[in-house]
Amino acid sequence: MTKKLKRMATLALAAALLQPHLAAADERLKAIREKWIPGTPMLTEFLPLYPCHSEELPCGQLPPPAVQKVSFKGALKGDAKRGEKIALDVRWGNCATCHSLPGHKGGTVGPSLEDYASRAPSLEYTYQRIWDTRVFNPDAHMPLFGTNSVLTEDEILDVMVFIHQR
Ligand code: HEC
Predict the structure, then answer these.
(1) Distance CA 50, CA 2 (A)
(2) Which of 3, 107, 138, 158 could staple 83 via S-S, CB 3.0–4.6 A?
(3) Which of 99, 123, 145 to mutate to test the pocket of ligand 1 (most atoms within 8 A of CB)?
(4) Coil, strand or helix: which one is 101?
(5) Atom 15 in ligand 1: which residue has the minimum CA distance?
(6) What is the residue with the minimal CA distance to atom 39 of ligand 1?
(7) Atom 37 in ligand 1: residue holding the nearest Cα
(8) Directed axis angle between helix 153-164 and helix 80-88, to 10°?
(9) CB proximity list for 117: less than 8 A, separation 6 or greater
(10) Both ends of the chain: CA-CA distance in Å?
(11) What pLDDT sits at residue 48?
């Protein structure tokens, strides 16, 4: 076997072995969202859920989740105040670390969203950007808020109302 093949076989084996653990982790992530209040420190009982701190470990070499293409057909309805809180809170949406936002100077990793609404982006576009930005740019340095269950649908909507306001 070539070195590359060996490596691929090892990775496939690692992925297969980890599959049941990942399903269990999914369940536990749901449990987190029932108990943990966003914006507060993570509960210590949940910390063992994040055991992978090295790209050298099999868990650090798992392939990224499949790209999720979503469609948004609804109306822009939500709580702008809550959206602002989610976007500013480093333990919740954390958008401000990379973006300036309406009324707030922020990081410059991503484009400024200060007057995002003036560019009249479609809701469909914004929703997909936040849910899984890889649809537009596979290498974008932005978290996959929907695909990775970082934010709930309601939370994404609140953030959308906040950044779409004029
Ligand atoms: C780690 C940095 C980072 C974080 C955190 C982040 N973003 Fe982004 N965002 C980016 C980058 C980088 C881009 C540009 C992607 C590209 O090049 O395609 C982007 C693009 C966007 C766009 C498209 C902008 C446009 O002009 O079309 C929107 C909307 C957006 N982000 C919203 C958000 C929201 C809302 C949050 C928080 C829930 C967030 N982002 C969190 C880095 C980030």
Answers:
(1) 33
(2) 158
(3) 99
(4) strand
(5) 140
(6) 95
(7) 95
(8) 100
(9) 102, 163, 164, 165, 166
(10) 60
(11) 75
User: Quick check: 89 and 38 in contact, CB under 8 A?
Assistant: yes
Q: Is the CB of 144 under 6 A from ligand 1?
A: no
Task: Characterise 76 by phi-psi region: left (phi > 0), alpha (psi -120 to 50), beta (else).
Answer: beta
Tokens 């979503």 belong to residue: 70
The mean per-residue pLDDT over the stretch 29-58 comes to: 82
* Domains present along the chain, CATH in parentheses: 3-61 (no CATH), 80-164 (1.10.760.10)
Q: How many CB atoms lie within 10 A of CB 150?
A: 17
- 97 Cβ closer than 6 Å to some ligand 1 atom: yes
**Any atom of ligand 1 within 6 Å of the Cβ of 129:** yes
The DSSP result for 104-152, as a single string, is: B---SSS---TTGGGG---HHHHHHHHH-GGGT-TT--S--TTTTTSS-
Q: Closest Cα to atom 17, ligand 1: which residue?
A: 140
pLDDT in tens, 110-126: 999 999 999 999 999 99
What per-residue confidence (pLDDT) applies to 82? 98
Name the 3-class secondary structure at 60. Answer: helix
Q: Which two tokens stand for residue 96?
A: 């401000």
